[in-house]
């Protein structure tokens, strides 16, 4: 393999008029799409972007994201995707850490980029939309494109293609180095889970955020690899998504559990015809059995589940037609090996057949940490040698990645996750790390002490709650603290509940006993 985007050229040659992207009432054929990626690649090269250089994408699910993503890779660059919900303080670290010099941004978000340019290496912003006028540092997307196309730059399998960011429980976001081989392998292996594999005739619902590795690899890359069509939606709206599926007869639907739960809660959900959907899949969080059964009963479509992490490109386990069990994340996908290991890194004993009755068995006796080895596992964290030492173990000649998730496995290789990585809050398919929120809370003038935990939520699985010890005689309010967080963090990270306490429960060494806070709810 030379470059994970190179195979699209084969589709262009065979089916130039086939629809690659359909959005805003317009169908963009492969030939036009591919030409635009080449013009973007040429423009980047003209501005000094060389193989291995980082280019950040600060965009929602719009056609320009797909053009920019493939154009950056075509130029030999590395894509640094950024959540368009992030504020300036959040993107500042990502841009500085990655050393990105160019940002392709939605026009409305350009001021956030400009606010941090002095603290980063960014010299050029490419604006998508009509809100920004051209100046020395900001160029409209269409004006940025070169007249001629650049060829696909050859890259090695082990060269980095994408550098998304994920947070650790005790530190700032870390850049994940995903290679051309990582992403290409995972996209193809995941595509094979659909009956007969992804086909040229498939139409994918593109509502999962493309800045996130799940939406990026499993929807966008997978469908374009096979010459199918991608239908992006910038934001999640159940009514809009259902209408689009029905109107355009989409065939593949990927989402997170909260999305499928939203669908079930639409008053007119039964009125939509989803008979065109031949494969529906949920990932990003544990899928409640009630949601799975409700969706299947309503539409007669089997709903499958997959598991993975940013560090694994992402999918490592999945259920598929004829291969699923209630409560299981599924079996390892093609080429991936997985184990449940003890603290001594020995394989844990398997149960005969899962799932087990967790009330009747000693989970400690059968559970351990889920570890992964395979061609989709990241090269490592960017510029974090200590973190790499912590998450990788060499065992029997293979390199194993520690997921931090606890579970058990059965004799037929079905895996079951019973606990998430310590302290991580999974809300609506997003991972939120409490320390990031807590550090912001400590900056508030009315906050003396703070702790953040996840509490049960019907729609999101978990939601964020902050426990705050106020500064004496301060005039801080729960509403004010919530607004403060909203103005500095992505919306899904802000505490939806704020409870004031006289003090927080702590150990003798000063650590907050978060389990006590969680159990008090």
In short:
With 521 residues, the protein is an alpha/beta fold. α2 packs across α3 (63-74), α7 packs across α8 and α10 (257-264) crosses α11 (289-299).
Describe this structure as you would to a colleague:
The structure is a single chain. The protein is α/β, with parallel strands linked by helices and 521 residues long. The chain folds into three domains: 171 residues, Rossmann fold, CATH 3.40.50; 118 residues, Luciferase, Domain 3 (Luciferase, domain 3, Roll); 94 residues, GMP Synthetase, Chain A, domain 3 (2-Layer Sandwich). The protein contains 16 helices and 28 strands. Strands 12-11-13-14-15-16-17 form a seven-stranded mixed β-sheet, sandwiched between helices. Strand 5, helix 5 and strand 6 form a beta-alpha-beta unit. The model has no long low-confidence stretch (mean pLDDT 92).
Q: Which features would summarize this protein structure in a list?
A:
521 residues, alpha/beta, Rossmann fold, Luciferase, domain 3, GMP Synthetase, Chain A, domain 3, 3 domains, five-stranded parallel beta sheet, 28 strands, globular
């Amino acid at each position: 393999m030379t470059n994970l985007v190179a195979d699209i050229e084969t589709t262009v040659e065979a089916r130039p008029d086939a629809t690659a992207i359909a959005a805003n009432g317009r169908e963009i054929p492969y030939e036009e799409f591919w030409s635009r990626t080449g013009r973007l690649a040429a423009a980047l090269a003209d501005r000094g972007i060389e193989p291995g250089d980082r280019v950040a994408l600060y965009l929602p699910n719009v056609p320009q994201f797909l053009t920019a993503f493939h154009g950056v890779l075509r130029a030999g660059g590395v894509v640094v995707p950024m959540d368009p919900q992030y504020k300036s303080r959040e993107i500042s670290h990502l841009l500085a850490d990655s050393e990105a010099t160019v940002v392709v941004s939605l026009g409305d978000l350009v001021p956030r980029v400009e606010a941090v340019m002095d603290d980063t290496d960014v010299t050029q912003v490419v604006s998508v939309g009509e809100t920004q006028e051209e100046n020395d540092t900001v160029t409209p997307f269409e004006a940025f494109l070169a007249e001629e196309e650049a060829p696909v730059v050859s890259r090695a399998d082990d060269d980095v293609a994408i550098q998304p960011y994920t947070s650790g429980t005790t530190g700032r976001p870390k850049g994940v180095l995903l290679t051309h081989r990582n992403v290409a392998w995972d996209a193809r292996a995941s595509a094979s889970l659909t009956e007969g594999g992804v086909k040229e005739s498939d139409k994918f619902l593109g509502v999962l955020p493309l800045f996130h590795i799940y939406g990026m690899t499993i929807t966008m890359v997978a469908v374009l690899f096979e010459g199918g069509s991608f239908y992006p939606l910038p934001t999640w709206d159940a009514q809009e998504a259902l209408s689009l599926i029905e109107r355009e007869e989409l065939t593949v639907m990927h989402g997170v559990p909260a999305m499928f739960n939203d669908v079930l809660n639409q008053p007119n959900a039964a009125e939509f015809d989803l008979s065109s959907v031949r494969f529906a899949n949920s990932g990003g969080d544990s899928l409640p059995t009630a949601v799975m059964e409700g969706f299947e009963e309503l539409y007669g479509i089997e709903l499958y589940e997959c598991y993975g992490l940013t560090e694994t490109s992402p999918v490592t386990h999945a259920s598929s037609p004829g291969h699923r069990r209630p409560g299981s994340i599924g079996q390892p996908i093609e080429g991936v090996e997985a184990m449940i290991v003890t603290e001594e890194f020995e394989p844990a004993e398997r149960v005969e057949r899962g799932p087990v009755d967790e009330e009747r068995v000693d989970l400690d006796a059968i559970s351990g940490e889920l570890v992964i080895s395979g061609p989709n596992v990241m090269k490592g964290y960017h510029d974090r040698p200590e973190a790499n030492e912590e998450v990788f173990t060499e065992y029997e000649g293979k390199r194993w990645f520690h997921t931090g998730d606890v579970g058990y496995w059965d004799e037929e290789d079905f895996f079951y996750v019973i606990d998430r990585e310590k302290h991580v809050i999974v809300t609506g398919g997003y991972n939120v790390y409490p320390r990031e929120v807590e550090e912001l809370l400590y900056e508030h003038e009315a906050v003396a002490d703070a702790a953040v935990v996840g509490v049960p939520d019907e729609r999101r699985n978990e939601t964020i709650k902050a426990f705050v010890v106020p500064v004496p005689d301060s005039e801080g309010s729960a509403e004010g603290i919530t607004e403060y967080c909203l103005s500095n963090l992505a919306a899904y990270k802000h505490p939806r509940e704020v409870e004031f306490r006289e003090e927080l429960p702590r150990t003798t060494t000063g650590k907050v006993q978060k389990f006590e806070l969680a159990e008090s709810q």
